[in-house]
Specification:
Elements lengths: L3 H7 L3 E2 L5 E7 L3 E2 L12 E2 L2 E8 L4 E5 L3 E9 L2 E6 L5 E6 L10 E4 L4 E6 L5 E9 L8 E2 L2 H7 L4 H6 L4
């Protein structure tokens, strides 16, 4: 039986700043020039990037946002809950997993500039997923939320924000 420890070792996953473990698996050689990117990008970007991402029950991925769309793919383990707060304040939960009879999906996406966080569902020991970002991910485009600031913007989601922020 595959365990989280086995996956971390096998795929040489590293600690991620938002929580969990990750490893970049793909970075497109093709480049999108800054002038062709949506407003807000500070320079050129690869067309696409992809990572493995693993969360164990004792951990969560803190609220953060990026300037690109992010497509999530389920690989192994159990259900991952992804909480998305769109810029207009709409909040929804994506259930990433293999139990399609209970509303889980194998793939979903988070729109660019939305705040999002994730955690294993209550009965999940770990979640092993992938994330594909386009335009490609760059840490310059990564913003980790501060709970007081995000709660002030979206007070109706304060409990969720306080639970899934580290600072």
């Amino acid at each position: 039986m595959t365990t989280a420890t086995t996956l971390v070792s096998q795929y040489q996953l590293l600690p991620h700043p938002e929580g969990g473990y990750y490893k970049e698996t793909y970075r497109s050689n093709a480049i999108i020039q800054k002038e062709a990117l949506p407003k807000g990008f500070s320079g050129d970007r690869n067309c696409s990037t992809a990572i493995y991402f693993l969360l164990e029950q004792v951990n969560f991925s803190a609220f953060h946002r990026i300037k690109s769309d992010e497509c999530w793919h389920f690989y192994a383990g159990q259900t991952l809950l992804i909480y998305v707060i769109e810029p207009n304040g709409n909040c929804y939960t994506i259930k990433l997993g293999s139990d399609i009879e209970n509303g889980e999906v194998f793939q979903s996406f988070v729109p660019a500039n939305s705040w999002f966080a994730s955690e294993p569902a209550r009965n999940s020991s770990y979640c092993f997923v992938g994330c594909t970002v386009s335009p490609g991910f760059d840490f310059v485009d990564f913003e980790l939320a501060k709970k007081n600031e995000l709660s002030a913007l979206y007070p109706t989601h304060k409990d969720l924000i306080n639970r899934l922020c580290r600072q």
